[in-house]
Design brief:
There is one protein chain. With 373 residues, the chain is an alpha+beta fold. It has two domains: 242 residues, no CATH class; 88 residues, no CATH class. The strands form five sheets. A six-stranded antiparallel beta sheet has the order 5-8-3-4-2-12. A hairpin with a 2-residue loop joins β6 and β7. α4 packs antiparallel against α5. The chain is elongated, with a radius of gyration of 38 Å. 18% of the residues are buried.
């Protein structure tokens, strides 16, 4: 596998044709830095986790309890129900400066290193790259559908009816009171079951009308596009009135972003977020949800390499000339699980898991910008 390590800092030193030594020291041990010096950082990897979820909401219809009686439809929802479900998890890596691994490069007075050119190339990590924003960001979409849930078309018949009612008035005739019947029209509102029956009757009338349109012996003047429009309108009305019994549903999408910085070279496990079927994606501090874990499993380095890497690690704490320090990334298996099974798995190179090594200034390069190996 071929990797390109962006050591333009080293390249510029070679191209400067300076024969004077350049000293590289950990920044916390440097006592001075001349005007030609540079403080640079080793890279570190940040994991950005994207979590997508969807909330399905069911709104029961006003005539739900009569669906079995008038339409023969069983098991319709009678209460409002909300349920969240995770639809996708993705993890990507980005590179940023590691504020714990700063080095001061101090050239001699007559060295000619164009640091501005190095910065503009974007191939080294300047101090301005130290800023990290690890706050969680959550955005929600799909709320516009809530406005379409109202049940406004409940019947094609009026909800009030006129009934004739007989009242009796007492009328005195001579010395005797006589009951005289009097008829009056009373306005009476239909009860909920009567409204449901009217809606069910209209559904069956729509179905009969559709059957008549599709019949071979149909007596109508519609054909082609006109017939298609009529059938579509019948279907729309049928679904609208069916929703009075079976209810309506809508979905709401949510996306949350998290950032995580690995820091244990032998592997680590951490709670990234929590999830609840009733509340959706939650921060890791909310104990009402089930934890989702990020697990990192770095590939092991052969033990025979450890003495060399350990000696170089001790060496970098002392001023040394004509070398530059860099990191060799280590690939790790990144997994996200709900505690029972793995939901996401990907191999990602983690810079800070790898050892810090050095390269001589006079190392041969293949081209003028990148070192390949």
């Amino acid at each position: 596998m071929t990797k390109k390590i962006t050591l333009i800092f080293l390249v510029a030193l070679i191209l400067s044709c300076s024969k004077k030594p350049i000293q590289v020291t950990p920044a916390d041990m440097a006592t001075s830095l001349n005007t030609k010096g540079l403080i640079y950082a080793l890279p570190r990897t940040v994991l950005r986790i994207k979590v997508e979820a969807i909330k399905n909401v069911v709104i029961p219809g006003p005539f739900g309890k009569f669906a079995q009686k008038y339409l023969g439809i069983a098991d319709v929802p009678l209460k409002k129900a909300e349920e969240w479900k995770i639809t996708n998890i993705d993890v990507v890596s980005v590179i940023e400066s590691d504020p714990t691994s700063l080095f001061a490069a101090t050239p001699s007075d007559d060295s000619k290193v164009d640091f501005l050119k190095l910065y503009s190339s974007g191939l080294i990590l300047p101090i301005s790259g130290l800023g990290v924003n690890s706050a969680s960001i959550k955005t929600q979409m799909g709320n516009d559908q809530i406005n379409d849930i109202a049940y406004t078309d409940l019947s094609t018949q009026p909800f009030i009816a006129s009934e004739k009612t007989t009242f009796y008035n007492k009328v005195q005739r001579d010395s005797v009171f006589v009951r005289v019947p009097v008829q009056k029209d009373m306005i009476v509102e239909k009860n909920i079951e009567e409204k449901a029956r009217d809606a069910a009757d209209f559904i069956f009338s729509l179905r009969k009308r559709r059957s008549d349109f599709l019949s071979v012996d149909a007596d109508h003047n519609l054909n082609g596009e006109g017939l298609k429009i009529a059938l579509n309108e019948i279907n729309r009305l049928e679904q609208e009135y069916l929703s009075l019994f079976i209810g309506k549903s809508y979905s709401e999408n949510a996306v949350s972003y998290y950032e995580y910085i690995p820091n244990q070279s032998d592997g680590e496990t951490s709670i990234i977020f929590r999830f609840s079927v009733s509340k959706g994606i939650l921060p890791s501090s909310d104990l009402s949800g089930n934890p989702y874990l990020l697990k990192s499993e770095p590939e092991s380095i052969p033990e025979t390499y450890e003495p060399l890497f350990k000696n170089i690690g001790f060496e970098k704490n002392k001023p040394i000339k004509d070398v530059i320090y860099y990191r060799i990334p280590i690939t790790a298996n990144i997994k996200i699980s709900d505690g029972k099974s793995d939901i996401f798995t990907r191999r990602i190179s983690i810079c800070q898991y790898g050892p810090i090594v050095r390269m001589p200034i006079k190392f041969m390069i293949k081209d003028s910008s990148l070192i390949e190996f």
